[in-house]
Write a structure and sequence with these properties.
- The chain has 151 residues and is an alpha/beta fold.
- It is 46% helix and 10% strand.
- Helix 5 crosses helix 6.
- The N terminus is likely disordered.
């Protein structure tokens, strides 16, 4: 099967589906910002994941963080990107996992911020791989966490 063009836009609805294992990646806000601000290594990784047939997603936390910190000149591009990525709802299971993560790490003397716990809980609830520059902030052992190049 021919490899899809790398010029495909992120989150394009014509992302190929292949037989075999596909992964769902939940993109942390740090990765989204790096892409929006032109980090070529991050953009290349995201395009490669799409070309390999994987799905890229965001959560309510990402959307809120982007909306809070977006520069006016980035709004149109950011909105278009967020609308093209798969939205992973943060439901009851994700919220429960988030609270349990925080409680478990608090007993060990480590604080997990609510936003990080919710992103981790959402990724785990959806069986997604969490792609983040902040791997240290997400020490959960039941969750696959990966860093982009240079992360």
């Amino acid at each position: 099967m021919a490899r899809p063009s790398r010029s495909r836009r992120l989150g394009s609805p014509d992302t190929p589906q292949r037989d075999g294992l596909l992964s769902l990646y939940l993109l942390d806000t740090t990765v989204l910002i790096a892409h929006l601000r032109g980090d070529e290594k991050v953009t290349a990784l995201l395009l490669e994941l799409l070309a390999d047939g994987h799905w890229l997603g965001v959560s309510c936390v990402n959307v809120a963080e982007i909306e809070r910190g977006i520069r006016p000149k980035e709004r149109k591009t950011a909105t278009a990107l967020l609308e093209r990525l798969r939205f992973l709802p943060t439901g009851r299971e994700a919220a429960q996992r988030a609270g349990r993560y925080q409680a478990a790490f608090e007993k060990r003397g480590r604080t997990i911020h609510t936003a990080d716990a919710l992103i981790a809980g959402t990724a785990r609830a959806h069986g997604a791989i969490l792609l983040t520059d902040n791997v240290r902030d997400l020490p959960m052992t039941d969750l696959k966490v990966e860093a982009p190049p240079g992360g």
